[in-house]
Write a structure and sequence with these properties.
Chain lengths: 279, 792
């Protein structure tokens, strides 16, 4: 689902931030033939030394550059879909859910922004006895979240920074609502899997992990906590969307040792009934 | 950089003797003292022939060398001493006598430390014809080879009656022993007046004699060696082996060791009799018919699991020497990795019960430890396959880059075999041949890779009024000028007409080779192992056994389907491309037509669970599959059936198939068996599985090969392995028939291309068979790399 209320500077799915359609340029497929520049009716595309840059202010996402591109190097991020279409698509894999005990996950961006769709979609899935998981950042009005939780079997929940001022600085939003909502989910006894992104220089301090662990220990429905190492796969997508990459270039993924060290801190601190992993 | 992965290696726990035997095998260069190279035997007449070209017509790479090879083989051939009235005998008796006489002098060789003897079995036997027969045979053979060569040159098909590719009745042979067969043949002989039947039965008796002579020569040879053996333990072992060779395969075996030696002798003698280290000469449900011997010995304390393992390891090694015979003539695309002496494991019984036993898992253990190409394993999966067994299989898959065995799925396999005419009992008890081909055990000549047609060629012919675009030959039906097709249905009809024509051409050519083999190339030793031959008094090559199928394997299916789909969408529905423009672009291989080509590449593709594409794909698949069984080979009465297996043909047919409307340029390989076009299944594995099973394999009794590449992360932990198990269980329920997996990252494959020396043990699945990645040709390597990587 496109659109997100947070602005985490390490976001690796930048196409999920903006709720509108966007043109994505795929650098490694591009042969810089210039067809897209020529065919853009809004003169939104400029060939630069750094590739073909689309000015989001000028682009009307008409798709003519995609038609013109011979090499599949341009595509539209996002498409409109009705609840019925989405349900019909997931229904096709019923046999796999049955055999694996699995189901569907609705994710984004932030699926709770388009909450009516999300609620209706999950409701339909429940009616079909498909297991449902909601992947959310938690920054959403509690009463809206609750409407969705009625049809949710599992919540994948992100916690990033325990320090409130840092949270505001690097995600753009307050941490309090995120914690309140987590507690709400826990009180509703919906199983939660917490994910903590490990971003070197931002979230990878021992005290952050310890503080987050303390918060998690207060959430009784948490089953798992996973540490997710930073990776750089998002970088090219920023370029493709014509957006500046907010993190310093060349920031490296945390080392295996670092991840293990943080996992140890987490394991020591976390309730023993919770499974802690690195992925 | 590729992530470091542990490439599948031989186990460090192999016993010293097995390790030594394995090393000795692998290092073919430094064992000049023993190679299983084909030994030619001749009648000594000037018109003799020891190599039958139609048997190799399905290996297009070797055809140009066959004539020269045949001549030099004849020049080096050993002349056998034959009875004076040899040429007065009927052809089948001559073959039996020749078989027996060759076995009297064929070298016996025992590898140091070996436990299962009979290492040398590759031969090139005379066709035993007299002068006028030989002349007729030669004429027909040349006519056939010219015809097939033309079809290969134009990429239409290849075909030829080929040895192997069947499952002999090992269970029966073990239970009765050859002595039992001898008794039955003798009794039948007394009660028949029919001369042909008499000839056939006499030929069986002579062949049994030959087999007995051969195994006893081994007994003597082993005794000789034993006498000079200083090590008392080995001497005792050799004496035991000598005793075993005195008994089997003539008498029924009493122990696991005897049973193993017996099936090996039988297997080797079939290959000996068929003049080839027989590709696809397969065992069927080995873990079922061998289990009683294993169980009895283990329970009685006569056999330890370690000893059983060593015996099986020794047995496994034997099969790999098949490659010696082809060491110097393997094709450029890893042809020499495709013998496919297949063992079928596990699967269901008549009541749907699971038949996995201790021997099943022991054979899997042995395979894991040996890291060899042969014998190839196939595991049957069904609704009641236990979780622990599936989990174990997946663990093996995860440790071996995916290729230690392939998987066949029971419910659809059984359904399709029954639909083709097998009894319910025979269908449930099916075995697997060669790569993945389902067949009845011990009662079908099968011929599973004998006819291979190019489904994509029909697109080219439909767009060029039946003419080959490169050579202009009028191969197909002269359908109307494609620019005059006003509707998509008109084009589709032309495509189907050309498909029918291609089937007809291939079938008619094959019939020639089938008749030639039926009349001139009987194999009495094999026939006695095939149910029904004795009662019918007819050789297996003459249609004497219970079921007599010939499989037509469809090559390039997805290339064909995507091409038809693109035409429907872009030419007739969206009208974005005119037919004239398309044909012109195909004829010039899209030169300066990049835009058009990209439009074609973006058209809907089979493999994405998109009904628009898949419905048409299904129609195309069922059309040709149901066309095939309308044909029967007139002289032998064998009936054709459909299958999907592309062996290496999807590579070979690349340059001979014009550019196709799916956006493929001439030269690029065709799609592999039923897999979507390489890289076009972009919607994940569940979508691809849906598309594939939508085709409906109830009309594909041979089964359909589907090779999927997964990223190694897919199997990284227990949770992911369970997801993979769910995928397999779903594939069974959805009606899949065969699945082969590669669990490898593209980075690793590219690394292996760059640094082959570091990846010598890396095996990959090609289609129904696996091969050492670094030993296959560059073009095949690229094909493996181009496949879509799926993740769960």
């Amino acid at each position: 689902m496109k659109g997100c209320p947070m602005r985490c500077i390490w976001c690796h799915n930048p196409e999920g931030i903006n709720p509108q359609f966007q043109i994505m340029w795929i650098e490694n497929k591009c042969k810089t033939c210039g067809q897209c520049v020529e065919n853009c009716p809004n003169e939104a595309i400029t060939a630069t030394d750094d590739g073909l840059i689309t000015d989001p202010k000028k682009c009307r996402v008409c798709g003519q550059c995609i038609e013109a591109c011979l090499y599949n190097a341009r595509e539209i991020s996002g498409r409109s879909i009705t609840v019925e279409e989405a349900v019909n698509t997931v229904k096709r894999d019923m046999i796999f859910y049955k055999k694996s005990g699995g189901g569907i996950t609705i994710s984004g961006g932030e699926p709770c922004l388009q909450w009516e769709f999300t609620r209706d979609f999950l409701k339909c899935c429940k009616a079909l006895e498909i297991h449902t998981a909601l992947d959310t950042c938690g920054f959403i009005k509690t009463e809206i979240l609750e409407k969705i939780l009625d049809f949710t079997d599992l919540v994948l929940y992100d916690l990033k920074l325990a320090d409130k001022s840092l949270h505001r600085k690097y995600t753009g939003v307050d941490f309090d609502l995120v914690v309140d909502n987590a507690e709400r989910i826990s009180r509703l006894q919906i199983p939660m899997w917490i994910r903590i992104p490990i971003i070197p220089g931002y979230t990878d301090t021992p005290e952050n992990i310890r503080d987050l662990a303390a918060i998690i220990n207060g959430l009784k429905s948490v089953e798992r906590v996973a540490l997710l190492p930073y990776h750089r796969l998002g970088e090219t997508k920023y370029k493709g969307l014509g957006i500046r990459y907010p993190l310093e270039k060349g920031l490296q993924s945390p080392s295996k040792e670092k991840m293990e060290e943080l996992l140890k801190i987490l394991t020591d601190k976390i309730n023993p009934s919770v499974t802690a992993t690195c992925s | 950089m590729a992530e470091p992965i542990a490439i599948w290696q031989p186990s460090e726990n192999l016993s010293p003797r097995i390790k030594k035997l394995r090393d000795e095998y692998m290092d073919a260069e430094s064992r000049p003292y023993f190679r299983n190279e084909s030994i030619p035997y001749t009648t000594g007449t000037p018109w003799d022939s020891v190599l039958t070209e139609h048997e190799l017509a399905i290996a297009p790479d070797v055809i140009p060398r066959l004539k020269g090879f045949a001549e030099s083989a004849l020049a080096f051939a050993k002349k056998l001493t034959l009875p004076e009235n040899f040429f007065d005998q009927p052809v089948i008796i001559r073959h039996a006598i020749f078989f027996r006489e060759a076995l009297k002098i064929h070298p016996t060789y025992i590898l140091e430390g070996d436990l299962i003897v009979g290492a040398h079995h590759a031969t090139l036997l005379s066709n035993c014809l007299n002068e006028p027969e030989s002349k007729e045979w030669r004429e027909k053979e040349d006519y056939f080879m010219d015809l097939v060569s033309h079809y290969i040159k134009t990429g239409v098909a290849n075909c030829g009656a080929t040895q192997g590719h069947l499952i002999p009745g090992h269970k029966m042979a073990l239970e009765k022993g050859l002595v039992g067969i001898e008794k039955e043949a003798t009794a039948l002989l007394k009660n028949t007046e029919n001369q042909e039947k008499k000839n056939f039965l006499n030929a069986l008796l002579i062949s049994i004699d030959g087999a007995k002579i051969f195994s006893r020569r081994y007994a003597n040879k082993v005794k000789e060696i034993a006498e000079d053996e200083p090590d008392t333990e080995r001497r005792r072992e050799l004496m035991e082996i000598a005793e075993i060779c005195e008994r089997v395969p003539y008498y029924p075996p009493r122990s696991f060791h005897e049973a193993l030696q017996s099936v090996w002798f039988t297997h080797a003698l079939i290959m000996f009799a068929e003049s080839y280290p027989g590709p696809g000469t397969s065992y069927g449900r080995f873990d079922q018919y061998m289990y009683p011997y294993y169980k009895k010995d283990i329970e009685a304390g006569n056999l330890t699991i370690e000893k059983a393992k060593e015996l099986l390891q020794s047995f496994n090694l034997r099969h790999n020497y098949a490659y010696d015979a082809f060491g110097t003539s393997g094709g450029k695309n890893g042809i020499n990795a495709g013998f496919g002496q297949l063992i079928t494991l596990s699967g269901q019984g008549l009541k749907g019960e699971d038949l996995t036993n201790d021997l099943t898992t022991l054979i899997l253990d042995v395979n894991m430890e040996m890291n060899l190409l042969e014998p190839k394993l196939n595991v049957r999966i069904h609704a009641n396959t236990p979780d622990w067994f599936l989990d174990r299989l997946i663990e093996d898959i995860s440790k071996t880059q995916g290729c230690p065995f392939l998987l066949n799925f029971d419910s659809m396999s059984i359904k399709a075999l029954e639909k083709a005419g097998l009894s319910h009992e025979d269908a449930v008890d099916y075995g697997v041949v060669g790569c993945l081909e389902n067949t009845a055990q011990g009662k079908d000549r099968s011929g599973t890779v004998d006819v291979n047609i190019n489904l994509a060629k029909a697109v080219e012919l439909a767009l060029n009024q039946g003419k080959d675009m490169q050579y202009g030959d009028q191969i197909g039906v002269k359908t109307p000028d494609p620019t005059t097709f006003e509707t998509f249905d008109a084009f589709k009809q032309a495509y189907f007409t050309q498909t029918q024509k291609i089937i007809q051409l291939a079938v008619e050519a094959y019939n020639i080779s089938d008749a030639l083999r039926g009349v001139y190339e009987p194999v009495p030793f094999l026939s006695m192992l095939m149910e029904g031959c004795m009662e019918n008094g007819r050789d297996v090559n003459m249609g004497g056994t219970v079921y007599n199928f010939i499989t037509v394997e469809g090559v390039g299916f997805a290339t064909a389907a995507d091409s038809v789909i693109a035409i429907k969408k872009l030419v007739y529905e969206d009208k974005k491309i005119s037919m004239a423009e398309l044909v012109e672009a195909l004829k010039t291989d899209f030169q300066d037509k990049d835009r058009l080509r990209q439009m074609l590449l973006k058209a809907p593709k089979y493999g994405n669970d998109d009904d628009y594409a898949d419905d048409l794909a299904r129609e195309i698949s069922r059309f040709w599959a149901m066309e095939v069984p309308k044909h029967t080979s007139p002289v032998t009465g064998r009936r054709y059936r459909a299958g999907y297996l592309s062996w290496n043909y999807f590579i070979n047919m690349g340059p001979t198939t014009a550019s196709t409307p799916d956006g493929r340029v001439r030269g690029q390989f065709l799609s592999n068996a039923i897999a979507p076009v390489q890289g076009m299944d972009k919607s994940g594995p569940t979508a691809a599985f849906h598309s594939v099973t939508k085709l409906g394999f109830d009309v594909i009794p041979n089964g359909a090969s589907y090779t999927v590449t997964f990223n190694p992360a897919t199997l990284r932990d227990k949770e992911h392995r369970m997801k993979f198990a769910a995928l397999l269980r779903a594939y069974e329920e959805m009606g899949g028939t065969a699945l082969q997996t590669n669990i490898i990252s593209i980075d690793t494959l590219k690394e292996a291309q760059k640094n082959p020396e570091d990846y010598e043990n890396l095996m990959v699945r090609i289609t129904g068979y696996n091969a050492y990645f670094t030993s296959i040709g560059k073009s095949l390597q690229e094909e493996v790399i181009a496949r879509t990587q799926q993740a769960l």
